[in-house]
Design goal:
The protein is an alpha+beta fold. It has a domain of 52 residues. Helices cover 28% and strands 17% of the residues.
């Protein structure tokens, strides 16, 4: 994904679901709630990346604009 825009990925533990939930803040207008999950943090990251790749591919396929990534200024 080297040419992919730098999107945020939020990974949070859910006591209710007993799993890590993944949300993609920049895609919130297109995707409601978590896009994926994982039993481990690493699994959640991998599933989040796969979901992001699928969202980008779908946007390209349907000629939809990609959301603008939230970029943090240098610290």
């Amino acid at each position: 994904m080297s040419d992919t825009p730098h999107y945020s990925m939020l990974i949070q533990w859910s006591d209710e679901d007993q799993t890590y939930l993944v949300t993609l803040p920049e895609w919130a207008e297109r995707v409601l709630g978590p896009v994926s999950h994982g039993n481990t943090y690493e699994e959640a990251v991998q599933h989040g990346r796969e979901a992001l790749e699928a969202l980008i591919a779908s946007a390209h396929k349907h000629n939809e604009p990609l959301p603008h990534p939230h970029i943090v200024a240098g610290v």
